[in-house]
Amino acid sequence: MKKGLLHIIICLFFSISYSQNDISFVQKDKSKIEISFKNKIGTSEEEYEQAVEIKNTQTGKTQIINNIEVSITGKPSHLEINDYNFDGYTDFASFHTDDGMGVYTIYQIFIFNPKTKNFENLEFPTHYNPKCDMFCDVKIDKIKKTLTSSCRGGAKTHNDIWKYDQNKKLILLKTTSY
Q1: 25 touches 90 (CB < 8 A)
Q2: 37 - beta bridge partners?
Q3: pLDDT 10s digits, 139-158
Q4: Architecture of domain 22-122
Q5: What tens digit of pLDDT does each residue of 90-142 get?
Q6: 48-55, long-range: CB within 8 Å, 24+ apart, which pairs?
Q7: Is the distance from CB of 30 to CB of 58 less than 8 angstroms?
Q8: Domain residue ranges of the chain, discontinuous segments joined by +
Q9: What does the pLDDT look like over 59-75, one tens digit per residue?
Q10: InterPro entries annotated for this entry (predicted)?
Q11: Torsion of CA 11, 91, 150, 104, to 10 degrees
Protein backbone atom coordinates (compact mmCIF):
# COMPACT_ATOMS: atom_id res chain seq x y z
CA MET A 1 0.00 0.00 0.00
CA LYS A 2 2.76 2.45 0.97
CA LYS A 3 4.76 1.58 -2.18
CA GLY A 4 1.70 2.16 -4.35
CA LEU A 5 1.00 5.53 -2.72
CA LEU A 6 4.63 6.56 -3.13
CA HIS A 7 4.50 5.53 -6.80
CA ILE A 8 1.37 7.65 -7.36
CA ILE A 9 2.96 10.67 -5.64
CA ILE A 10 6.14 10.36 -7.70
CA CYS A 11 4.16 10.04 -10.95
CA LEU A 12 2.01 13.04 -10.02
CA PHE A 13 5.10 15.12 -9.20
CA PHE A 14 6.75 14.35 -12.51
CA SER A 15 3.54 14.88 -14.48
CA ILE A 16 3.09 18.31 -12.89
CA SER A 17 6.67 19.46 -13.23
CA TYR A 18 7.40 17.93 -16.64
CA SER A 19 5.80 19.29 -19.77
CA GLN A 20 5.04 17.23 -22.84
CA ASN A 21 2.75 16.89 -25.84
CA ASP A 22 0.33 14.30 -24.42
CA ILE A 23 -0.66 14.28 -20.76
CA SER A 24 -3.04 12.30 -18.61
CA PHE A 25 -3.97 12.60 -14.96
CA VAL A 26 -6.69 11.72 -12.47
CA GLN A 27 -8.85 14.70 -11.60
CA LYS A 28 -10.02 15.50 -8.07
CA ASP A 29 -13.44 14.02 -8.94
CA LYS A 30 -11.70 10.69 -9.82
CA SER A 31 -12.14 11.02 -13.58
CA LYS A 32 -9.16 10.33 -15.80
CA ILE A 33 -8.33 13.16 -18.18
CA GLU A 34 -6.26 12.65 -21.33
CA ILE A 35 -5.08 15.72 -23.24
CA SER A 36 -3.25 15.79 -26.56
CA PHE A 37 -2.50 18.18 -29.41
CA LYS A 38 -4.36 17.75 -32.67
CA ASN A 39 -3.05 19.61 -35.70
CA LYS A 40 -5.31 20.78 -38.47
CA ILE A 41 -3.30 21.62 -41.54
CA GLY A 42 -4.84 23.20 -44.61
CA THR A 43 -3.36 24.14 -47.95
CA SER A 44 -1.84 27.46 -46.87
CA GLU A 45 -0.02 28.89 -43.88
CA GLU A 46 -3.15 30.77 -42.77
CA GLU A 47 -5.08 27.50 -42.52
CA TYR A 48 -2.68 25.91 -40.03
CA GLU A 49 -4.35 25.55 -36.67
CA GLN A 50 -3.57 23.68 -33.51
CA ALA A 51 -6.27 22.19 -31.32
CA VAL A 52 -6.32 20.27 -28.05
CA GLU A 53 -8.38 17.11 -27.59
CA ILE A 54 -9.50 16.33 -24.03
CA LYS A 55 -11.02 12.97 -23.13
CA ASN A 56 -12.85 12.57 -19.81
CA THR A 57 -13.48 9.00 -18.64
CA GLN A 58 -16.14 10.07 -16.13
CA THR A 59 -18.38 11.75 -18.69
CA GLY A 60 -17.23 9.69 -21.66
CA LYS A 61 -17.10 12.91 -23.64
CA THR A 62 -14.35 14.48 -25.72
CA GLN A 63 -13.80 18.23 -25.65
CA ILE A 64 -11.99 19.93 -28.52
CA ILE A 65 -10.46 23.35 -27.95
CA ASN A 66 -9.57 25.05 -31.22
CA ASN A 67 -7.37 28.08 -31.81
CA ILE A 68 -4.55 27.09 -29.52
CA GLU A 69 -1.88 29.77 -29.78
CA VAL A 70 1.13 28.58 -31.74
CA SER A 71 4.52 29.97 -32.64
CA ILE A 72 4.52 31.62 -36.05
CA THR A 73 8.16 30.61 -36.47
CA GLY A 74 7.49 26.90 -35.90
CA LYS A 75 8.70 26.58 -32.30
CA PRO A 76 7.06 23.55 -30.66
CA SER A 77 4.16 23.82 -28.23
CA HIS A 78 3.98 21.82 -25.01
CA LEU A 79 1.38 20.95 -22.38
CA GLU A 80 1.72 21.40 -18.63
CA ILE A 81 -0.65 20.61 -15.77
CA ASN A 82 -1.06 22.48 -12.51
CA ASP A 83 -3.77 24.00 -10.34
CA TYR A 84 -3.70 27.51 -11.82
CA ASN A 85 -6.73 28.79 -9.87
CA PHE A 86 -6.05 27.01 -6.55
CA ASP A 87 -9.41 25.22 -6.34
CA GLY A 88 -7.98 21.70 -5.97
CA TYR A 89 -8.79 20.67 -9.56
CA THR A 90 -6.03 20.12 -12.09
CA ASP A 91 -5.90 22.66 -14.91
CA PHE A 92 -3.57 22.75 -17.90
CA ALA A 93 -1.63 25.16 -20.09
CA SER A 94 -0.30 25.11 -23.62
CA PHE A 95 2.94 27.03 -24.00
CA HIS A 96 5.71 27.83 -26.45
CA THR A 97 8.82 29.98 -26.56
CA ASP A 98 8.30 33.51 -27.86
CA ASP A 99 8.96 34.13 -31.55
CA GLY A 100 11.56 36.82 -30.98
CA MET A 101 14.79 35.98 -29.22
CA GLY A 102 13.17 33.09 -27.38
CA VAL A 103 13.81 34.60 -23.95
CA TYR A 104 10.44 33.82 -22.39
CA THR A 105 7.60 31.33 -22.64
CA ILE A 106 4.06 32.31 -23.61
CA TYR A 107 1.23 30.47 -21.81
CA GLN A 108 -2.40 29.87 -22.70
CA ILE A 109 -4.09 28.58 -19.52
CA PHE A 110 -7.25 26.45 -19.32
CA ILE A 111 -9.21 26.13 -16.06
CA PHE A 112 -11.30 23.05 -15.22
CA ASN A 113 -14.95 23.84 -14.53
CA PRO A 114 -16.25 21.12 -12.14
CA LYS A 115 -19.89 21.92 -13.00
CA THR A 116 -19.56 21.43 -16.76
CA LYS A 117 -16.58 19.01 -16.54
CA ASN A 118 -14.93 21.06 -19.30
CA PHE A 119 -11.85 23.26 -19.49
CA GLU A 120 -12.26 26.98 -20.15
CA ASN A 121 -9.70 29.45 -21.47
CA LEU A 122 -8.43 31.78 -18.74
CA GLU A 123 -8.83 35.17 -20.40
CA PHE A 124 -5.92 37.51 -19.80
CA PRO A 125 -7.35 40.48 -17.84
CA THR A 126 -6.03 43.58 -19.64
CA HIS A 127 -8.18 46.18 -17.86
CA TYR A 128 -5.73 46.27 -14.92
CA ASN A 129 -2.91 47.71 -17.10
CA PRO A 130 -0.39 44.94 -16.42
CA LYS A 131 3.18 45.40 -17.67
CA CYS A 132 3.06 42.06 -19.51
CA ASP A 133 0.42 41.84 -22.21
CA MET A 134 0.03 38.07 -21.90
CA PHE A 135 0.88 35.23 -19.51
CA CYS A 136 4.67 34.78 -19.80
CA ASP A 137 7.06 32.62 -17.77
CA VAL A 138 4.22 31.77 -15.37
CA LYS A 139 5.24 30.86 -11.83
CA ILE A 140 2.79 29.59 -9.21
CA ASP A 141 3.05 30.28 -5.49
CA LYS A 142 0.76 27.71 -3.86
CA ILE A 143 1.23 29.22 -0.39
CA LYS A 144 0.33 32.80 -1.35
CA LYS A 145 -2.04 31.51 -4.08
CA THR A 146 -0.62 33.81 -6.73
CA LEU A 147 0.39 33.55 -10.37
CA THR A 148 3.35 35.61 -11.53
CA SER A 149 3.80 36.53 -15.18
CA SER A 150 7.25 37.86 -16.10
CA CYS A 151 8.30 39.70 -19.24
CA ARG A 152 10.95 42.07 -20.48
CA GLY A 153 10.46 45.60 -21.72
CA GLY A 154 13.55 47.52 -22.79
CA ALA A 155 16.19 47.07 -20.12
CA LYS A 156 13.70 46.08 -17.40
CA THR A 157 12.08 42.87 -16.29
CA HIS A 158 8.46 43.17 -15.17
CA ASN A 159 6.53 40.85 -12.85
CA ASP A 160 2.75 41.01 -12.77
CA ILE A 161 1.45 39.21 -9.69
CA TRP A 162 -2.10 37.92 -10.05
CA LYS A 163 -4.46 36.63 -7.36
CA TYR A 164 -8.04 35.36 -7.33
CA ASP A 165 -10.54 37.47 -5.39
CA GLN A 166 -13.45 36.12 -3.31
CA ASN A 167 -15.57 35.91 -6.50
CA LYS A 168 -12.93 33.69 -8.15
CA LYS A 169 -11.97 36.46 -10.60
CA LEU A 170 -8.33 36.99 -11.46
CA ILE A 171 -7.12 40.42 -10.33
CA LEU A 172 -3.75 42.17 -10.55
CA LEU A 173 -2.29 42.27 -7.05
CA LYS A 174 0.85 44.26 -7.92
CA THR A 175 3.50 44.84 -10.55
CA THR A 176 7.22 45.06 -9.90
CA SER A 177 9.95 46.14 -12.31
CA TYR A 178 13.69 45.94 -11.96
Answers
A1: yes
A2: 52
A3: 999 999 999 999 988 889 99
A4: Beta Barrel (2.40)
A5: 999 999 988 877 778 999 999 999 999 999 999 998 889 999 999 999 999 99
A6: 50/77, 50/94, 52/79, 52/94, 52/110, 54/118, 54/119
A7: yes
A8: 22-122, 124-178
A9: 899 999 998 888 888 88
A10: XAC2610_dom
A11: 60
